[in-house]
C-alpha cells in the first residue's frame, strides 16, 4: 500500500508485524554500533519504538475509519459550521520526522450535518500516517465532501516540520500552511469568512 493509505489489520496481524519490526529495528541499532544487549538505556528501545510506530504514529494506516454520525439538515441550516484548532501530529513521509500544528475545518451544509467531535476523530485518523501535509489537507477535504456532500467545505493546516527544524536547513520558526477549498468556499465572501474565523481562533 502507499504511505498514507489504510489497510485494516487484525490484532493478530498487528502483533506479528510488531514482532518482526522489533527484530529488524534491533538489527538496525546494532548496525549503528549500539550494544542493544547490555546497554540499559537502549536495550528495550526496539520494543518501545515498534509499539509507538504501530499503535500510535502509524495507527491510521491499520485501524478502521471512525464512524461519522450524520443527521438530516431538517431546519435548513445554511451558515458556516467551523471547528478548530484541532491538534495535528503527523509524520513526514520523506524522513519519518514529525510535523506538528493545527487544523481548521469548515463546511456549509446542504442536506446533511454531522457531529463535530467526529470531525476531530477523522482528522486524528488521517494524521496518523506517513505523508506530506499537502495530501493530508486534501484527504480531509475529500472525506468531508464525500460523506456530507455539503455546499462547500474548507480545510486549513499550519504545521512546523521537524525535518526542517532539527536537520537540513535547521530553520526553527518556519511553518507550512496548506488549504483546500471546495464548492462555495471558493466564493470570495465565504473564503474570507473561513479565514477570518481561523484568525479569531489563533
Structure commentary:
Helices cover 41% and strands 25% of the residues. It has 202 residues and is an alpha+beta fold. It is elongated and about 65 Å long.
From the structure above, extract its key features:
GTP Cyclohydrolase I, Chain A, domain 1; alpha+beta; 202 residues; GTP Cyclohydrolase I, domain 2; 2 domains; 7 strands; 5-stranded mixed beta sheet; 25% strand; elongated
Termini distance? 36 Å
Strand content: 15-25%
Question: Helical proportion?
Answer: 40-55%
Average pLDDT number: 93
Order of helices and strands: HHHEEEEHEHEHEH
Q: Number of DSSP helices?
A: 7
Low-confidence regions: none
Q: Which structural class is indicated by helix and strand composition?
A: alpha+beta
* CATH architecture annotation name of the largest domain: 2-Layer Sandwich
CATH class category name of the largest domain:
Alpha Beta
Quick overview of this protein structure:
By secondary structure, the chain is of the alpha+beta class. The chain contains seven helices and seven strands, in the order H-H-H-E-E-E-E-H-E-H-E-H-E-H. The mean pLDDT is 93.
Question: Which helices and strands appear, and what pairs or packs with what?
Answer:
Layout: H1 11-31, H2 45-57, H3 59-62, E1 70-72, E2 80-92, E3 98-108, E4 112-114, H4 116-127, E5 130-131, H5 133-148, E6 152-161, H6 162-165, E7 176-183, H7 188-200
Parallel strand pairs: 2-5
Antiparallel strand pairs: 1-4, 2-3, 3-6, 6-7
Helix pairs in contact: 1-2, 4-5
Amino acid at each position: 500500500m502507499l504511505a498514507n493509505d489504510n489497510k485494516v489489520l487484525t490484532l493478530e496481524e498487528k502483533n506479528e508485524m510488531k514482532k518482526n519490526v522489533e527484530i529488524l529495528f534491533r538489527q538496525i541499532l546494532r548496525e549503528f554500533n549500539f550494544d542493544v544487549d547490555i546497554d540499559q538505556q537502549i536495550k528495550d528501545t526496539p520494543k518501545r519504538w515498534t509499539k509507538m510506530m504501530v499503535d500510535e504514529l502509524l495507527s491510521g494506516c491499520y485501524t478502521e475509519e471512525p464512524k461519522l454520525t450524520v443527521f438530516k439538515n431538517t431546519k435548513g441550516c445554511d451558515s458556516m459550521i467551523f471547528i478548530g484548532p484541532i491538534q495535528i501530529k503527523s509524520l513526514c513521509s520523506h524522513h519519518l520526522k514529525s510535523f506538528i500544528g493545527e487544523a481548521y475545518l469548515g463546511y456549509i451544509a446542504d442536506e446533511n450535518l454531522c457531529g463535530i467531535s467526529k470531525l476531530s476523530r477523522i482528522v486524528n485518523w488521517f494524521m496518523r500516517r506517513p505523508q506530506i501535509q499537502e495530501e493530508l489537507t486534501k484527504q480531509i477535504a475529500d472525506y468531508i465532501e464525500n460523506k456530507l456532500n455539503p455546499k462547500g467545505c474548507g480545510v486549513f493546516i499550519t504545521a512546523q516540520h521537524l525535518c526542517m527544524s532539527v536537520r537540513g536547513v535547521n530553520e526553527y520558526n518556519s511553518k507550512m500552511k496548506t488549504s483546500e477549498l471546495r464548492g462555495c468556499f471558493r466564493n470570495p465572501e465565504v473564503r474570507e469568512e473561513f479565514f477570518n474565523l481561523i484568525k479569531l481562533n489563533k
